[in-house]
Amino acid sequence: MPDDRLRSHHDMGGQPAGAIERAEHDYALWEKRVDALLVLLGSKDRRLITVDELRRNIEGLGAEAYDKMSYYERWIHAITQTLIQRGVISVDELGRKIQAVQEREDHHG
Amino acid sequence: MADEVPPRFRVGDRVTVRAAYPIGHVRTPHYIRGKRGVIERLCGVFAKPEELAYARSGLPKQPLYRVRFLQTDVWGDYSGQSTDVIEVEIFQHWLEAVEEAP
């Protein structure tokens, strides 16, 4: 068998997985927005992210974070990482925006 | 074409998947590395995902094959039919030719 010590956490084909959740579920509004964000960023007139950059940034999560985060949490993490790596947004801009949103929420929450 | 690597393999050729373990974004599943299979078809040529993952061009484009493996060759404890197969799409740069015995 391939050397399991060299297997990345996300590369889990063939590993024990437990029961499969087969129930359908609705997506939250923020999850739909994350999906739309990826489509818009990757569109032909923008090309600000490739699916391979998305995957690389998801695969770069530590094992604990990978398991703990939901599907679209991993996506928004990876989209954010890609936009910072490409210089589309800066860490400082992101921090200030999150702070502004947080303060708005605290006022109107 | 300068931005496209020509196909090395034909349908029916026996190949071994490279047992390499680089970091980064790799589309060759871990479980298939080092396994021996047969070229089932050429799927086309595509930019290298390993490079696209770092916002580079991924050129020259690489041939992508569908490769057929016996399940019993892939999983040590496989308990299904001995003729069962699994097909995996693998880029040419992950494949090596198997020297046929004379």
Explain what this protein looks like in three dimensions:
The complex is a heterodimer of chains A (109) and B (102). Chain A has 109 residues and is mainly alpha-helical. Chain A has one domain: Orthogonal Bundle (Cyclin A, domain 1). Chain A has five helices and no strands. The termini of chain A are far apart. The model of chain A has no long low-confidence stretch (mean pLDDT 94). Chain B has a single domain, classed as SH3 type barrels. Chain B has a five-stranded antiparallel sheet. The N and C termini of chain B lie far apart (35 Å). Chains A and B meet through helix 2 of A and helix 1 of B.
The gist of it:
The complex is a heterodimer of chains A (109) and B (102). With 109 residues, chain A is mainly alpha-helical.
Q: What name goes with the CATH superfamily of chain A? A: Nitrile hydratase, beta subunit
Low-confidence stretches of chain A at least 5 residues in length (pLDDT < 50)?
none
* Rounded average pLDDT of chain B: 95
Question: Helix fraction of chain A?
Answer: 55-70%
General form of chain A: globular
Write the CATH architecture name of chain B.
Roll
How many distinct domains of chain B? 1
Secondary structural class of chain A: mainly alpha
> What is the CA–CA distance across the termini of chain B?
35 Å
CATH class of chain A, anyone? Mainly Alpha
Strand fraction of chain A equals: under 5%
What's the assembly state of these chains? heterodimer
SSE order of chain B: EEHEHEE
Total number of β-strand segments of chain A?
A: 0
Number of structurally distinct domains of chain A: 1
What is the helix content of chain B?
A: under 10%
**Proportion of residues in β-strands of chain B:** 25-35%
Q: Which fold name fills CATH's third level, the topology of chain A? A: Cyclin A, domain 1
What CATH calls the topology of chain B is SH3 type barrels
Radius of gyration based on Cα positions of chain A: 17 Å
